[in-house]
Structures are given as C-alpha cells and as structure tokens.
Amino acid sequence: MKNDQHRIAVAQMHPVPDDVEGNLGKIERHVATAAEGGAALVIFPETATTGYFIADRLARLAEPADGPTATALGAIARRHAAHLAIGVPLAADDRVFDAQLLFGPDGALLATYRKAHLFAAERDWYAAGDSPMVVETALGRIGMSVCYDLIFPEYIRKLVDLGADLVINSTNWITDDFQRQTWGWDRTMVEALARTRALENGVWLAMTGSVGPEAGFDSVGGSCVVAPSGKIVASAGTSEGVAAADVAFESEELDRWRAIATYRADRRPDLY
What we know:
Mean pLDDT: 97
Oligomer: single chain
Pfam families: CN_hydrolase
CATH architecture: 4-Layer Sandwich
Organism: Pikeienuella piscinae
Keywords: Hydrolase
GO molecular function, one term: hydrolase activity
InterPro entries: C-N_Hydrolase, C-N_Hydrolase_sf, UPF0012_CS
Helix content: 25-40%
Radius of gyration: 17 Å
C-alpha cells in the first residue's frame, strides 16, 4: 500500500572473537532497544556472533542453520517481535560459508544467504555462495548481501532486478594505518559506497558494520540506512548502538524521485 512505512534499524556492535554467549547477549540488548523504538527489522554485522578473525576456530564455531546459535537468534527475534538479519559462519554441505540469516518476528528462519564474493584470505576460510537471494517478507522484498558483495555493482543491481525493495548488507569493513593514512580507507569511504549503490539502483539500502579493534585491524563502523537518492537517513557513526529510520517502499515522493532519477532505464548495455 502506498506510504506504508517500516522502521529499519542498523545495530552496530563490536563482536568479541570466540565469545558467542557474550555476543548473543549484546545482540539481544540491541534488538530490544531497536524494537522498543518501533523497529520492524534489525540488521547486524558480518560474523556478529563469533567475531571475524576466527579462521583457526571455524571448525568449532561454524554451525548449521538449525544449530544452537541460530535457535537462540530465532528466539531473540520472537521475544521482541522483530525481523532479524545477522551474519554468522555457517556449516553446510561439508563446507563453511560466510552467511547471513534472516528471521521473522515469529522466530522462524526465513532465509539463509551464502556470501558470493570472498575477499582475500576469506577464500581460504570459506566456500563461496552461488545464488543471489531476494526474500518475500511481511515488510517487502529484501535483497541479502554480505560485506564484499557490496563492492560489485552488477551483483547489487541483480538483486534490484530480482525485485528487491530493500538491499541489506551485513559487513565488517576493516582498516589499518596503511589503508587509512595512505589511501583514506575509512568510515566515510564505506558510507559513500552504500550511498552509491542505493543511488545508482534507486533502492533503499541498509548496511550494518562492526566497530572496534580485532587482530591488528580496526572495524570502521559506518552503519547506515540510505534512501534511493543516496541520502543517509540514519547513521550509527563509529560507536556501538542502534540507528533507525522509517522507510516507505512505495510512496508518491519515491515515485516522483524515480521519475527524475531514471538511471536504470537509461543504461546502454549494448555499449558496455
């Protein structure tokens, strides 16, 4: 229905490596805060339950989609009556994937997405997924992605072509002194990436990253909800916490914007 709004929240946190119990407690606190503020969907970072640099512990920490951690996450979604999207290491088909789970407000697991684009050493840690995923939910059609997937414009456009009303990204953008001081790779860069993907596709986008130090790197945060114009409508900055915005996947204002910003329709694929 036109002008129906849903409150979308990004929950920025510092996942502690190998502390699943502690991370689950922090996740529930963030979900509770977001739900009390009216959030219908709460999005968490990549590998939020385990921490990112866990390659030597994946055999122990990776679980199936119906394992104890997923069961606990479903219970959190149910207790707070909110959709919950979160990054986890997934054990499936005798392999391990960098995955994103999506739960409904009744606690049911709606979708399991496997990260398609693996970055650097991740190729030694995980198997790559091979299926873009857009999920029908009570909120609308949600396109799922994890971290490095966002770098690839063709992939995010595929999600939009498949009908996504909202693209979500669970991430952990990291930097160090070399990347930050020499090349300027920091929070502003990843926010610009999210803004560009939203703008070029005319789609709502919500990206949630980690913050804090881990294994000699710094997670830069930058979690945000971005309008189809590229405007950031909610930002968590560089601290742990929740940021949220009300979004409408159909509205007169959005129709008016898309009539101006005809980017997808104006593509010339015959030339490139």
